[in-house]
Design a protein that fits this description.
The protein is built from 23 helices and eight strands. By secondary structure, it is mainly alpha-helical. Among the domains are: 60 residues, no CATH class; 157 residues, no CATH class. The strands form four sheets. Strands 1-3 form a two-stranded antiparallel sheet. Strands 2-6 form a two-stranded antiparallel ribbon. Strands 4-5 form a two-stranded antiparallel ribbon. β4 and β5 form a beta hairpin. The radius of gyration is 24 Å and the shape is globular. The chain starts with 5 loop residues before the first helix and ends in a 10-residue tail after the last helix.
Length: 573
């Protein structure tokens, strides 16, 4: 990854570890235990130059190089592949690799769930790093004002980004904008009201946008831009029903004239390729991704492809029937009213559907990484039907479906070998935000749809959305706008947040279902015979789920309440 310099961002480099120890706390610090083995590999004469357990802020904040290392460390706060893991909190996927996310999706958990404390601690750890940077960066008097502004904008954005996840999860949270030390009163203070924190986030993103450039040279690929700050502002505003603010911010991104949908001219592959190596920002043909966590082969990698189509285990991300049923038919109508839809066979489910379906969910006849459950055609495996036999000879699905989005087939056989970008904010989402904001204000027109949602549809060769047509077949425009968001952003870690902000928690209380049992090939019937089905014969994968009003917020972790009882607890927990 060229941006942030390969060693600086991905492994941070020896100099970052040595010089940036002061970012963990103010003043001199002890070397974290996790770094001791790394540091032991340094040359002895270098280690003797200064005490490694007492590198002070006064020795660090001087040069552009030092500031860049420090602000690069703030980028660790961007979630990367864990963003996709959040998908397992919703109803698009099941069988998560992190069991805590399954517990959240079912509503059967309490304030002792480990992931809750992990989320709380991680966000505040990275916030502290940003706070420390912003308290010290202006000490570098030899650095140009433009560079200082850029670095400050990056740190401000990341801090606001981290706070946005805190309020999305927990509502009221402590708003801490300085580094804290033992004895500071903020450590025992109550939480700040969510509306105050959101107001601060939006202002912080405005401030960051004013400091950041609109683009960078290729050597700084992936750094945070003005468009990212405005786009994240639109996202936060939409989440809290500030539709006029969201519309204005989304419009500001559109007016920059920098971003456009990824399109190589092939409607059959455009969408899927965006999430593969061909869509990496480093390749120079992706103008859609506004913010991404970039990964670099042999340096910093993730495991998404293998988790989706792991060839000797059960897939960690099995698409649900709910997601599969969401895709419209190519006539623009839902499957329950379109004459084009058929369930005569497993393969028929994928026919005559929104083309994004087969570019997201694996369809028969597609190239496949799941080994024995495919048909060999030379060097390529072709997917045929779902596998339920856990014999370690192929990828098992819990629902009858697999993802192809974010899957790079060349890496499925290997653990943690993916280096495709993880997209955190795309221009597609900006267009969806603009359309939804206009809808909720009662101002959405066909012209608005044509310049937003229909651009997404035309990229894949899907029929346009037409307000008059929706009314003619008895559809609801809000339902269709929300459907479009679910389809376009599937497997991008967004679904739980959308369900929560739409106050549709009842969806999470429904049974998670899979394919109709009768469509499973006879050779696999023995492995599903004991599985429960609903009245229509669809597999029931996860049941006894629950959702009540308290679940619209996660509980404050018990560990944090024990440390500071003044935090209190969210209603119902």
């Amino acid at each position: 990854m060229k941006n942030l310099n390969e060693k600086e961002n991905s492994i941070l480099g020896r100099r970052l570890f040595l010089r940036h120890l002061s970012l963990y706390t103010a003043g001199s610090v002890a070397v974290p235990a996790a770094l001791s083995m790394f540091l032991s590999g340094c040359k002895k004469d270098f280690l003797n130059q200064e005490p490694l357990d007492a590198i002070t802020s006064e020795e660090f904040w001087k040069t552009d190089e030092q500031l860049k290392l420090a602000v690069n460390a703030c980028y660790i706060g961007l979630r990367g592949k864990p963003t996709i893991d959040l998908e397992n909190m919703g109803d698009n996927t099941v069988y998560p690799s992190t069991a805590d996310y399954l517990a959240i999706s079912t509503g059967r958990y309490d304030f002792s769930l480990p992931t809750l404390n992990t989320e709380w601690v991680n966000q505040y750890t990275h916030i502290r790093r940003c706070n420390h940077f912003l308290e010290n960066y202006e000490k570098a008097t030899s650095v140009t004002a433009a560079t200082l502004n850029q670095y400050a904008g990056e740190a401000k954005f990341i801090r606001a980004y981290l706070y946005s996840y805190l309020v999305f999860f927990f509502g009221d949270v402590p708003l801490v904008t300085k580094t804290l030390n033992i004895g500071d009163p903020e450590l025992t203070a109550p939480r700040d009201p969510v509306q105050d924190v959101v107001t601060w986030i939006l202002k912080e993103l405005d401030d960051a946008a004013g400091l950041l450039p609109t683009s960078y040279a290729s050597t700084d690929l992936g750094r945070i831009t003005k468009g990212a700050s405005l786009g994240w502002k639109a996202k936060v505003a939409l989440n809290y029903g500030l539709y006029d603010v969201a519309e204005q911010a989304a419009s500001a991104v559109m007016d920059l004239g920098i971003y456009q949908l990824y399109n190589t001219g092939n409607a059959a592959t455009n969408y899927n390729n965006l999430f593969r190596y061909t869509g990496k920002l480093a390749n120079g043909n992706n103008k859609e991704t506004i913010l991404a966590r970039l990964y670099l082969a042999n340096v910093s990698m993730h495991n998404m492809s293998r988790e989706a189509q792991v060839p000797d285990q059960t897939s960690r991300f099995s698409p649900t029937k709910s997601l599969v049923d969401t895709y419209l038919c190519i006539d623009g109508k839902p499957i329950d009213i379109s004459p084009l839809y058929s369930e005569a066979s497993y393969a028929d489910i994928f026919k005559n559907r929104d083309p994004r379906m087969v570019q997201t969910i694996l369809s028969p006849g597609s190239a496949w990484g799941g080994k024995a459950d495919g048909i060999s055609t030379g060097a390529t495996l072709i997917y045929n039907s779902p596998k339920f036999n856990a014999d370690k000879k192929g990828c098992v699905t819990s629902t009858g479906y697999y993802f192809t989005k974010y899957v790079e087939l060349s890496t499925v056989d290997f653990v943690t070998q993916d280096s495709n970008d993880i997209h955190l904010l795309r221009y597609a989402e900006i267009l969806l935000t603009y359309a939804e904001s206009r809808l909720e204000q009662g101002t959405l027109t066909q012209a608005d749809i044509d310049k937003t949602i229909n651009l997404l549809r035309r990229r894949v060769g899907m029929i346009d959305m037409n307000i008059a047509d929706i009314a003619a077949w008895g559809g609801d425009l809000r339902t269709e706008i929300r459907r479009e968001r679910r389809v376009e952003l599937a497997l991008e870690g967004q679904r739980w947040f959308d369900i929560i902000r739409w106050k549709q928690g009842e969806l999470l209380a429904l049974d998670v279902k899979g394919v109709k049992k009768s469509l499973i090939p006879q050779a696999n019937q023995a492995y599903v015979s004991a599985l429960a089905t609903d009245a229509n014969g669809y597999l029931i994968i996860n049941t006894s789920r629950m959702f009540s009003d308290k679940n619209y917020l996660l509980p404050v972790p018990v560990t944090q309440i024990q440390k500071n009882p003044a935090l209190g607890q969210n209603p119902g927990w």
